[in-house]
Amino acid sequence: MERIKIGGILQSDGRALLRIMAAPAKSGAAGTLIGAMGDGGVNIELLAQCMDLDDNLNFTLVFDQKDLDQALSLVEGVKPQLRAEGVSFQQDVAVISVFGPHLREKPRVPGLMFSILAAAGLEPVAIATSISSVSCVVEGATLDAAVAALEEVFEAPFQVKKRPKTY
User: Fold this and answer.
1) Which residues contact 157 (CB under 8 A, 6 or more apart)?
2) For strand 161-163 and strand 8-24, is the pairing parallel, antiparallel, or unpaired?
3) Class of residue 54 by CB neighbours under 10 A (exposed 0-12, middle 13-18, buried 19+)
4) Rounded to the nearest 10 degrees, what angle do helices 108-119 and 143-153 cross at?
């Protein structure tokens, strides 16, 4: 198969994932949660939000693992406003992003990315996209295998950009 040209692949490991589940909709939870993180100095690298079948909000945030205790403390401080039914976290995760100009005009990229990861036995724990990138979160121990799988199907003019665990 011919490899698809992209701008590059980014990776960052040494991350933690935080889930806030079942916060009531129309409660201002997004502003409360994300504002608290920013005010508390937690830099969110990846953020996904969706509604569940009961019209509650669910948030997934990824940030530097060194900030996990701070993030949990901040969530504890805004719990009354969030009224979320659950909070969970996962340590030692990594973010992988495929990026490039005109990525939104290449509809095969996201499907191919997740198909090749699945074929390698890797299941993302979170996904986020933008106009110019497709990102996913994987368990930290699987990062090298995930990058190797992606390099098989994507042609990037630059080598994988590795961000150290502490940047």
Assistant:
1) 5, 7, 8
2) parallel
3) exposed
4) 130
Average pLDDT over residues 65-75: 98
Q: Please choose, from the candidates 100, 140, 134, 110, the residue with its C-alpha nearest in 3D space to the C-alpha of residue 122.
A: 140
Strand, helix or coil for residue 63:
strand
Look at residues 90, 114, 144 and tell me which one is the last residue of a structural domain.
90
Selection from 60, 68, 69, 63 nearest residue 13 by Cα: 63
Q: Higher confidence at residue 2 or residue 119?
A: 119
Question: Of the candidates 43, 74, 90, which is a domain's last residue?
Answer: 90
Residue ranges making up the domain that contains 9:
4-13+92-163
User: From the centroid of its chain, how far is CA 69?
Assistant: 19
- Gap between the Cα atoms of 38 and 25, Å rounded: 21
Coil, helix or strand for 88? strand
Do residue 8 and residue 30 come from a single domain? no
Look at residue 166 and tell me whether its pLDDT is greater than 70.
no
Q: Do residues 117 and 133 share a domain?
A: yes
In 100-146, beta strands by DSSP E: 126-129, 133-139
What is the pTM for the complete model shown? 0.90
